[in-house]
Amino acid sequence: MSSATTAAPPLSEQEILSTYRQMQSDMQGMIQNLTKVEMERNEHRLVEETLTPLDPDRRAFRLVGGVLVERTVREVLPTVKEHRGNLDGLVNTLKEKLDAKQKEAAAWKAKYNIKTQEEMEAAKNRQ
Length: 127
Hints:
With 127 residues, the protein is mostly helical. The chain has helices at 13-51, 73-111, 117-126, and strands at 59-64, 67-72. Strands 1-2 form a two-stranded antiparallel sheet. Helix 1 packs antiparallel against helix 2. It is elongated, with a radius of gyration of 24 Å. The N and C termini lie far apart (50 Å).
């Protein structure tokens, strides 16, 4: 017998709500992570904008693993640009994952006809 022909046992109301709440919690965590990475990306952009017009032989300090290291702008700027590029990619990936999770939660909500407290109050007020 294949697994496609066997039906999963129906979920209880508690299991449905628990799964939906877990999805909401996951999305909140993803949003917090995305915000943190976006802030870091903006910091890299500011550093890049500050260093670009400077003399390439000017001293620049960089924090590496908790240690402040003296370098030149010529040495630091390519690294900052590379890290910002990596952060741009990470932001895009996180946004895609968040969109997918939001669609999954919306589908779950529609499938089981889940109503939030605000939606229930709005429905009452319309009557």
